[in-house]
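Anyone up for a design puzzle?
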């Protein structure tokens, strides 16, 4: 069995498997201790954010064509170059020696020699690295910013080059994280004091109460606050959907596609833990997370059901939240793997699934009830175009204005939808609307 005590080995094996299957399986990384797991995750996501550019450098500095390289060896080189260029905490000698040693011990001494040559050439040229120079403009941009060509072409056509560059640069940054104080167990002011006393750098959000922006989760994890249910990780834009649903104590709420349950927990907080929340999800592997988060967070009003929301019949609810499965193009900084997994064909499949779920969710809403539709996507087909198509079929629903709930800088001109962008708002990219059933 592979020795998984080393963060670099676990990262390389994980990336090798991802290259083969496009599935990001974290079994090896999750077996590491906390510190090494953090390091492996930093390597893994960082390399995925910069993959095309790293491969370009390998191609320039290698005497062997990159297309002929073994995937394990290619990921050794990706890790070594990433270490040299982007990990300030790693000395150059360690970045080179560790990668060369892995190549020698896991492949051959010849592979170790080649890795040594490529990494030392990278080190020598570090202040004058070659730049992508393809004739095809889309290929050049895709290589420079490490995004797939179809996504680059789409965003350049929609935003123009300058803004598309800014968006892709934001996607390639190490992400910040938002902590939300769990108001069923503490208060925003009390949690703020905890952060201050612990010496954790944070920035309190002015958009919604109880959200604190931090650079790393390591110190919070060390304090045990997650296990105690005092806070959880939730991007502030992800909090918008439960906020505009505005559930109150005593209501009945259905959270469709609820796993892992962070939005469910926020719904329970807003309801002061009084009423009924039915959290529904089809994924048998992720649904246990809802129960875990609800128990840890003290959300006793949450009931959980594994079901396909398109096929199951539910009792009508006062409010329904559909945070729909999507391409995730708004969260590519935190989920760098998604950029390599998504395709135009998958976008269309996503749109079809969303329409089916939206149809099902609409039929769960009682008269005068509310329905929130949200995604973590930037793509119009998954967002406003989806809603426009829905309203053509459902004349008993109408869009509500959102300015009573959210800051105007995230709202559309008519105030009836929100959309955040990583390069504009400093958070994940999310979309959402509030629909009211009239009859």
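Challenge accepted. My sequence:
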């Amino acid at each position: 069995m592979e020795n998984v005590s080393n963060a670099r080995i676990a990262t390389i094996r994980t990336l090798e498997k991802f290259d083969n299957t496009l599935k990001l399986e974290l079994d090896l990384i999750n077996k590491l201790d906390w510190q090494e797991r953090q390091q492996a995750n930093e390597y893994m996501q960082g390399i995925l954010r910069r993959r095309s550019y790293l491969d370009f450098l390998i191609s320039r500095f290698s005497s062997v064509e990159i297309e002929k390289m073994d995937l394990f060896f290619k990921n050794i080189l990706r890790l070594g170059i990433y270490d040299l260029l982007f990990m300030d905490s790693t000395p150059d000698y360690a970045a080179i020696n560790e990668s060369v040693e892995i190549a020698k011990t896991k492949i051959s001494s010849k592979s170790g020699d080649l890795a040594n040559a490529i990494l030392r050439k990278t080190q020598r040229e570090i202040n004058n690295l070659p730049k992508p120079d393809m004739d095809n403009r889309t290929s050049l941009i895709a290589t420079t910013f490490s995004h797939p060509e179809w996504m680059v072409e789409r965003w350049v056509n929609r935003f123009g080059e300058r803004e598309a560059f800014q968006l892709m640069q934001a996607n390639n940054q190490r992400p910040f994280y938002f902590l939300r104080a769990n108001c069923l167990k503490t208060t925003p002011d009390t949690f703020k004091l905890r952060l201050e006393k612990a010496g954790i750098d944070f920035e309190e959000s002015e958009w919604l109460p109880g959200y604190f922006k931090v650079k790393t989760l390591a110190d919070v994890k060390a304090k045990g606050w997650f296990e105690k249910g005092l806070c959880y990780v939730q991007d502030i834009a992800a909090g918008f959907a439960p906020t505009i649903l505005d559930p109150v104590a005593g209501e009945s709420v259905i959270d469709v596609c609820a796993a892992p349950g962070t939005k469910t927990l926020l719904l329970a907080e807003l309801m002061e833990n009084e009423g009924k929340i039915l959290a529904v999800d089809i994924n048998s592997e992720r649904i246990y997370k809802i129960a875990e988060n609800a128990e840890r967070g003290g959300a006793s009003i949450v009931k959980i059901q594994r079901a396909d929301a398109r096929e199951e019949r539910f009792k009508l609810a006062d409010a329904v939240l559909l945070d729909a499965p999507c391409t995730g193009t708004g969260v590519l900084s935190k989920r760098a793997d998604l950029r390599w997994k998504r395709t135009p064909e998958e976008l269309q499949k996503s749109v079809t699934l969303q329409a089916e779920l939206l149809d099902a969710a609409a039929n769960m809403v009682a008269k005068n009830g509310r329905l929130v539709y949200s995604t973590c996507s930037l793509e119009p087909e998954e967002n406003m175009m989806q809603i426009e198509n829905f309203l053509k079929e459902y004349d008993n629903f109408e869009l509500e204005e959102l300015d009573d709930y959210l800051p105007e800088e995230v709202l559309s001109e008519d105030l009836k939808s929100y959309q955040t962008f990583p390069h504009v708002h400093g958070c994940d990219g999310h979309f959402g609307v509030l629909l009211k059933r009239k009859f």
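A detail worth pointing out: The chain has four domains: 7-124, 137-171, 178-225, 236-437.
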